[in-house]
Design a protein that fits this description.
Two copies of one chain form a homodimer. The two termini of chain A are 36 Å apart. Chain A has nine helices and ten strands. Chain A has helices at residues 34-44, 84-101, 143-146, 194-207, 252-258, 282-286, 290-297, 331-335, 375-384, and strands at 70-78, 136-141, 185-191, 212-220, 222-223, 271-280, 346-347, 350-356, 362-372, 394-404. In chain A, the strands form two sheets. In chain A, strands 5, 6, 7, 8, 9 and 10 form a six-stranded antiparallel β-sheet that branches. The first copy, chain A, is an alpha+beta fold. At the A-B interface, strand 1, helix 4, strand 4, helix 6 and helix 7 of A face strand 1, helix 4, strand 4, helix 6 and helix 7 of B.
Chain lengths: 420, 420
């Protein structure tokens, strides 16, 4: 691992964290290092792979953070019979391990090779020589964490359920596959090196052993959205630039207005994450003439300029005369804020390819993720898209929603507000 | 796409190449640009993403080329009823498109946006703004291309079948899954950007439409072997350095002796590629104590040094006295050349994660690829591994073998020697 700042002395994971083999009896753990991390990030600079984003802070990292290149996302279900204490210890252990891995350190001080030779290593080791690679680890809570599908209040937090947190409604064109959606908890691991993102999900899954297990997961290899004006716009697997009009972190007023929950609840400073696994029917798309592809999207394919004229970042003109008019069913028109009562989303999607199907077609698409202060923002836009010309070429196969807590103080853990 | 050298005037793909929509009637295509490419590679230098490896030459690139970070591998079957001419035109079209994509260019001159708006674009476009990223595209021919499973000589090349090309024998511990092995043809696309590798496989699959389709495929995210002394040794998902003792391209005598076929056949200058999809039982491994992990491998986990002493690149000493002895069933002992009549392989494996299984365990492992002048080299080593202590933690689920033709002259195409 890289040289990072000296790790302050602290207890390790909770006793159950690593299969009972970590030699500390501390049940509650003291977390720290937020301020030090910020200093480190600045000191390390942005050299390749050396980028470090703070784990602790007012908001969780991985939301407005400039989108990293790779994703490993996993949704988890709590184990049958697990208790409130199990959930608390899990969130403590996850926060502790995440605060280390995001700095390029192993999950615990004894790491992958420095513990007892007679115990399984705490860390699985595949990221031992890799830099932090801009890793962010972002946690979210699904509706079923608060109230199970049978109505049970398993963790004594039913009264803490955010008012707006509910399974998404069914949308026109949904073709949801069982097992590819929902979940009690989720972790979004983003990094510029896929091995670093995979290492994070793998080790957090291992730490959860006996308390929670993966329900479904997805790797993403190419970011399709930028969240910073410093990033160039990337392309999705339809070959079009995606996310040109996305919210950018530099527009702090728009971020405040559209992304962060701002109320007196435990969720204040957090957000809502909507996840949609969108399979692209790429063979049908690839048979479509260029003119039609551009009509469907409402932008040119090369430059990404609106069909109403200009260059990539020119405003969309929905009333331009003549041939340049953006079609009534074009994706950019229906998705645009002006068509959705001003609603804007912070998108963080990734391209994916999950092998191929039995007909030899690539199982490919867009793993859509958006952050917003209210699920209504996404729901409104998605309803507008019911007559999207693009629907002929896509199929929504997975869906989930999570309340994403605010960031933790360096002496606490993510989600602590739930238990006060 | 990046600025690359000026494309010499040449016909496009064969008529059937892109769904019959490319406006050229040329059946045979003239290929060129090999020399120009080499110049370009040198001129572009090794700036991030700008690395270009020549497509044309004595050997195909992607074998001794320093292993790139990402992989998209696909095995194809020829369509029922396809003819010798279909196979020839497919190989011509694939070579033409590959010679362009490896230079960071779209699959044809009209590309993704420069053709007729009334036709589907030749190129799918998702790599439009990306540099060449060290892309290599390497083609191979499976045993069934020469003689189908029912004995048919579909393409009139049965007499050209390399003497040593035959389906691999069954090995102890094989748990092969139907549909995850074999194939008439294969393409190994390696690049430092996964979107560039995916773009290559996607477009080559599209070009094959009606002639061949994907039988199975695999994405790899982390190289586990180095093929150059300039590369650091990477780690597999067991957390150990992998490929320390791999053949290195700088050792040209060992490469000549172990990798390249050298006879008077059409395959001379080519190689044999063995592919094994190895699922790792990572949960069992992660429960194993460090001492046992190191005993199983025969090296230390941190440094990767032999248990017989020294540092990573110290020679393995199988006769060292006392506690440092490498176990009789240790992986490094059984796999070592001295235990296998001197046989050495050029490995090019990648880590993979294919989501998770129904129990919430990551479907993860090693996508093993090795190049050798004779399949016997791999078969001998794999038989030695029958009592490998590592077998408790792995499962071979996919298997395939391909004859990898030599590189093409810039006026020809890969595999042309088959049809002379």
């Amino acid at each position: 691992m890289v040289d990072a700042e000296q790790e302050p002395t602290r207890p390790g994971l909770s006793r159950r964290g690593l299969l009972g083999l970590v030699g500390t009896g501390a049940a509650g753990i003291a977390l720290g290092g937020g301020a030090a991390t910020a200093v480190t990030a600045a000191a390390m600079g942005a050299a390749a792979g050396r980028e470090v984003y703070p784990f602790f802070g007012a908001h969780q990292s991985g939301i407005t953070t400039p989108v990293q290149d790779r994703l490993h996302f996993a949704a988890y279900d709590m184990a049958a019979g697990s208790s409130r204490d199990d959930l608390i210890s899990l969130l403590e252990d996850w926060s502790y391990a995440a605060s280390r891995m995001t700095r390029g350190l192993p999950v615990s001080e004894s790491g992958a090779v420095d513990g007892s030779p007679l115990a399984p290593p705490d860390d699985t080791g595949e990221a031992l020589d890799l830099p932090p690679s801009g890793l962010t680890i972002t946690f979210g809570f699904g509706p079923t964490l608060f109230v199970a599908e049978d109505g049970a209040d398993r963790f004594g937090i039913a009264t803490k359920k955010p008012r707006l947190l509910a399974k998404l409604p069914r949308f026109a064109g949904d073709a949801l596959q069982p097992g590819a959606g929902d979940g009690d908890l989720c972790i979004q691991a983003c990094a510029d090196d896929p091995q670093v993102a995979v290492h994070a999900i793998r080790n957090l899954s291992r730490i959860a052993f006996g308390r929670a297990s993966i329900r479904w997961s997805q790797l993403g290899f190419g970011r399709t959205s930028s969240t910073s004006t410093s990033q160039v716009t990337a392309r999705n697997l339809f070959g079009f630039k995606d996310g040109t009009a996305n919210l950018k972190s530099e527009d702090s007023a728009a971020i405040e207005q559209n992304v962060w929950v701002d109320d007196s609840s435990w969720l204040s400073g957090g957000s809502y994450l909507v996840v949609r696994s969108i399979r692209m029917i790429i063979e049908a798309w690839d048979h479509t003439r260029l003119e039609e592809q551009e009509r469907v999207i409402g932008r040119t394919k090369g430059e990404g300029a609106p069909l109403s004229g200009g260059t990539e970042f020119s405003p969309l003109d929905f009333d331009a005369p003549g041939a340049a008019l953006i079609d009534a069913d074009a994706h950019v028109r229906l998705a645009h804020a002006s068509n959705n009562a001003g609603a804007r989303l912070l998108r963080r999607g990734y391209n994916f390819v999950n092998g191929n199907d039995e007909l030899g077609r690539l199982d490919a698409g867009l793993f859509f993720m958006s952050y917003q202060r209210s699920p209504a923002q996404f729901i409104g836009v998605q309803r507008s898209l019911a007559r999207d010309a693009l629907n002929e070429y896509i199929k929504h196969v997975g869906s989930a929603i999570f309340a994403v807590p605010p960031g933790a103080a360096s002496t606490s853990f993510v989600g602590a507000g739930l238990f006060r």
